[in-house]
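Reply to dn_fold:

You asked what the input looked like. This is it:
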Amino acid sequence: MSEDVLASPEVVEEELDILIIGGGMGACGTAFEIPKWAEGTGLKIKLVDKAAMDRSGAVAQGLSAINTYMGDNDPADYVRYVRGDLMGITREDLVYDTGRHVDDSVHNFEDWGLPVWKQKGDEGKKLRDGGKPVRSGRWQIMINGESYKWIVAEAAKKALGIENIQERIFIVRLMTDKNDPGRIAGAAGFSVRENKIYIYKFKTCLLAAGGAVNIFRPRSIGEGTGRAWYPVWNAGSTYAMAAECGAEMTLMENRFVPARFKDGYGPVGAWFLLFKAKAMNAFGEDYQEKNYDLLKDHGYDKYAVGFAMGTCLRNHLMMIEMKEGRGPILMDTPSAMAKLAESMTPKEIKHLEAEAWEDFLDMTISQCGVWAGENIEPDKEMSELMPTEPYLLGSHAGCAGLWCSGPDDLPGTPDHYHWGYNRMTTVNGLFTAGDGVGASGHKFSSGSFTEGRMVAKSMVQYCLDNPDLKPELSRTTEQLVDEIYRPVHTFLEHKDYTTAIDINPHYITPKMLQFRLQKIMDEYVAGVSTWYQTNEQMLVMAERKMKMLKEDSLKMRAKDLHELLRAWENYHRIITAEAHMQHIKFRQETRYPGYYYRADYQAINDDEWKCFVNSTYDRDTGEWKLKKVKWQPLISVGENEPEAMRHLGPELS
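and this is what came back:
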């Protein structure tokens, strides 16, 4: 594409009733469900995805398990599980709502062709007909899921209609209404394949563009650059775009630090739960049993009963070993395989080995590459485990996200949990699902899809309740075009100043700016280089450096559409990173040891901080406002839950 053509993009403007932003599991759930509720209404609905729905979102490469399926379990126990893993603070109404509806989604997946493992005697019997799945844990069921996303996307596209789907369009900016700043009105973005800018007006929209990766410097650098646990195209767009139009955010201090097979980021869940493998230190000791009493330091033991403890506490016990020189941490895969094989025939053993490999081939092929490259056969040699760099998300073992209205039919739900339509943010008409919904982790793929289905019903009802709504954008077309293509104009204006295209005093490449962001976050906001530790002084330094980085981000260049994509992903990462930093600075305790540590406030302080931390961002001034919001328990405390779950936290107005 010539530079002259790039300088003058075609502008396409369209008016809709409902816009779905994203192509992952949440957006697919909405696309599948919404035609049922919109039938006969005449509503104009469109889905716009930065990538292609078949391989878009966190499930893109496939999965080996569906991590949220109730079956015979009580959704109330699911709430207790999520509450325990996230150190006591969750929106129990949102979690319960997902739990009571999720199984129908999983049944649909199987109906559409997803192979679900069944127990002996139930082969060929579907889940919805009483078939018993092979579980790798209380909430997880095993699948042959390499084509999981493909199957779900096909159903979503068939339901919504290909004519209502636009792929390869990156939405980068939301706009509120010119006459009502508290109401959503439009979105703008650009094609990543053609020289076009798209501007949409609508009554309501779903913002479901995933969580955030590559905010922190990853462990995989050099030849491993680009390898991460979470999908690299998720750039915090959900959080940044919502924040910039005034949506309230919650628990953005939370992050997920998965412990994974080193370098390949391969999953450990099936090895722990299905294959019954044990992790140990370099001396063959069970470090969780060995270090359990150390949880009493700083009151961390309040959130553990026996070895039923949150994911972050397991990380914490692992890090003690590594920092005290008893690493590396190893997964004893050979013993697990040998134990399982004791009562098996040679044919069954061969099948078991195939399942062990398939766990990675379904979802993390790079782990097989690491094993092959290092001459490791997992049935003969142990593999290293390592906690990764941090990720921000709301659907896995993390709960960062947007403050959303919950269902209106659960008894005891406080008013501040419900103010409008289910899964609507504090901006009227702006909905989210999956990683976007804060304070309700552990929904995973099936729960994210289910939330998308809930949002479908809510958005249709919103349109029917507001038939005369006429959105007016708060920004002009000219302003949006200038802003979106600013990196292109910066490049064209200054490219001839130097003979080396990448070295120029007037601009910075998106790649170099991302390195700077990652360095700040890694070294000052509890990344891997500080063993996930920070303090107020480090956060103040980070705040200063982030302010300069935001100024410099306006000088990013884009020599082509791909760099324009990277530039806008960086804008979104910066806002998301800033939210994370501000929340950690505000919460004066270490609520999630093993995910991050406030070295100046190492204890868990339920008396002051058993609450949500919520924030709003002013795009015009760049200022953040943070506050405490009361946590309200809705589900009774179970027999095996920690006593701390009964603690109500501070009295808040």
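Residues 561-586 form the longest helix (26 residues).
Hope that clears it up.
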